[in-house]
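Hey, can you fold this one?
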Amino acid sequence: MIEIIYDVATLEDSCYIEILPDKYKDECWNMSSIYFTEENFCYIIPTFRKCYKKFDYFSYNEIEVDTWKLIMKELEKVKNYLTNNPIPDTLKDVIGFPFTNSEKDFMENYDTNLKQLILMIDDFQVWIEAKKTSTKYITVLGM
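Sure. Predicted structure:
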């Protein structure tokens, strides 16, 4: 399922991307954070690489709210593209497929995955909008 995870207690193992509504303070698995599976986050990773040139998938990325505004605009473009029923072969120009079978698996259940990805992006935008009013940084804690 392509979705955001809101409850830290439901996480299994450690292969998650954490989005922390603050600066990183040497603590992971924060209750105030949201989480993405590695694969789900990688669908939107091209947006981060485009809008935040210093983005490091394996590190802590303390991103200022002003940069999040750029990320939000780009996510809106991605969401609009996906909403307009794109040709499946063009998806790799917009979203990331991190693993060997990621694109194939996505295409096998294309309509459902497309809808879930659009909803995940929308939910992420709503969460960011709510958090950026109370902090100057939102941190992406990488792998």
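The radius of gyration is 15 Å. Let me know if you want another pass with a different chain boundary.
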